[in-house]
Amino acid sequence: MSTSRRTVLAGAAAAGVAATAGLAGTGTAYAAAGKSPSRELFGRLADGTKVYRWTVANGGTRLKVLSYGGIVQSLEIPDRRGAAANISLGFDNLDDYVAKSPYFGALIGRYGNRIAKGRFTLDGRTYELPVNDGPNSLHGGDKGFDKHVWGVEPFSRGSDRGLVLRRTSPDGEMGYPGTLEMTVTYTLTARGDWRIDYEATTDRATVANLTSHTYFNLAGEGSGSIDGHTLEMAAARYTPVDATLIPTGELARVSGTPFDFRRAKAIGEQARVPHQQVLYGKGLDHNWVLDKGITTVPGYALTLTDPASGRVMKMYTTEPGMQFYSGNFLDGTLAGTSGRLYRQGDGLCLESQHFPDSPNQPSFPSTVLRPGTTYRSTTVHTFSAR
Hints:
The structure is a single chain. Helices cover 11% and strands 38% of the residues. The chain is mainly beta. The strands form eight sheets. The protein has a nine-stranded antiparallel β-sheet with strand order 11-12-13-14-30-24-23-18-21. Strands 17-28-25-22-19-20 form a six-stranded antiparallel β-sheet, with no helix packed on it. Strands 1-2-3-4-5 form a five-stranded antiparallel β-sheet, covered by helices on one side. 48% of the residues are buried.
């Protein structure tokens, strides 16, 4: 990434952090004035809790976010002709998100991805987690951060528009130690970039790995398969998995495998190669080791392109890994916001993260968070058309 690009992203990240302060008055007043961001009632949970949908628009991008799970319910960007479409899979009602969502658009935590056998040891003590994915714990357990209502506050700072989401995860929630205080900031910039800034602190040693589980289809939600999308990823290695999708601990070279996206390739060509790792995941559902490693400002990770619409999404992140999931378990039983059924490969996820099962893999970058330190992570999505 060029020096100028790093400077822009570093400044943007700083602005996102600054935007989390002093919102109680001005943010609410701004929303009340009918400007972006704005909110509307989306539904009620069984206990009567209200769930709101917030809309943020800036730079040609429109983002709709639910207070339930911090869910990205819609993400609209223009194609090469200027026609906007929602490129995020999801539902048009709250009940479906509560009852049957495969993490559509959700904020994921306390630990994104899988932890083997729902167990890890920290400082000599073993912690047991809910097992909700075969023998393993996935995405924080059966009631992860995606299944809670978050506090939401809108902001307008300079040319940026966005939302600050806050939640406290109590000590022992889903088996995890420590009370985790979290702030997640969604920002749309004047150029239409979507930035996510994560921050968390704890009062006891714990593990943390937060991410976003948005399903993308750059041709538009409900338009069909993403097989024709091309992906370029700056990653020469990936983490092979066992039959339950837990990393073996190896950092394997992508050369000569379906995991080699160092130059842009059509996703469908790679996701259907009869390679043992692809068979395990019923497609691609693996963590790539980004060449850039852990960085203090977002570094280049990947470019996703839909040749038909011309839409292009690039991702920059501070994280060392990227989970690419090619929508293998969509089976035609879920109807999305368009009213069309989602079938296998109708969307894909690109989850910036630390590696799966890191608490049990001492050779992987650590996900331990201790009192007195702050968890910070930033991911930026840029959009264009050609």
